[in-house]
Amino acid sequence: MPKAQPAAPAASFDHPLPQLRAAALLFDMDGTLVDSTALVESTWAGFCARHGTDLAEVLAFAHGRPTRETVSHFVPDPDLAAAETRRLVALEESETSGITEIPGARAFLAALPPDSWAVVTSAGRRLAEVRLAAAGLPLPEIMVSADEVVHGKPHPEGYLRAAALLGVEPADTIVFEDSDAGVRAALASGARTVVIGGLDAFGEVAEQCADFRGFQVATAPSAPGEVLLTVPTPPTDPTGERR
């Protein structure tokens, strides 16, 4: 299958809207499809209180990584780290307060053919199912969770596995991510990458959108099975410059 390439841009009155083609779309979950920020911060704040660690430092490391890797990084004793990981996972799986969709995510996923997308998450499978349901989002036919990989993000294993399960080449996919570790994993897999949210460290190598509002989804007439995305135009600042 040829490598995914941008199609000719569609016409618009102000700026052309870029269009992207892909054989499949791969999504991170927390921070990309699901807004669980308050719950995640509360969970890690409790961890820091128990272990005397700095919350800002823990959050910076944890974003995009499996819980077990974050706990092991800050708790050197392997037995204690394993017990603490089990405690945190059980806590996360039992709490859904404040979880919502990232704006536009539900409509965006509903517009996709069910066999054209997958979720690749640093959460365990049970936690991912709980949070997707709490946010009112559909469960994907294919999910690669932290339970199914040896190497978490920023290693590309999860995205490579998801592409293989969908039967497509990684270079023919588009990955949606929000974290530094996740974007690095996506880029290392060879996928085209779209950053959702405010992470601005990858402007030279990735598209960026605030959320999923404004995306338009269609199938590519010249290539059945491919997805054609019309990407919303970046906002302008008061001087008229594109952001």
Would you summarize the structure shown here?
With 243 residues, the protein is an alpha/beta fold.
Helix content: 25-40%
The 3D shape can be described as globular
Largest sheet composition: 6 strands, parallel
- Using DSSP, what is the number of strands? 12
Number of helical segments with 4 or more residues? 8
Instruction: Give start-end ranges of low-pLDDT stretches.
Output: 1-16, 235-243
- Beta-strand residue percentage: 15-25%
Average pLDDT metric: 88
Largest sheet strand order? 7-6-3-8-9-10
Describe the structure.
The two termini are 34 Å apart. The longest helix has 17 residues. With 243 residues, the protein is an alpha/beta fold. It has a six-stranded parallel sheet, covered by helices on one side. A four-stranded antiparallel sheet has the order 1-2-12-11, with no helix packed on it. It is globular and about 55 Å long. Helix 3 packs across helix 4 and helix 4 runs parallel beside helix 6. The N terminus and C terminus are likely disordered. It contains eight helices and twelve strands. Strand 11 and strand 12 form a beta hairpin.
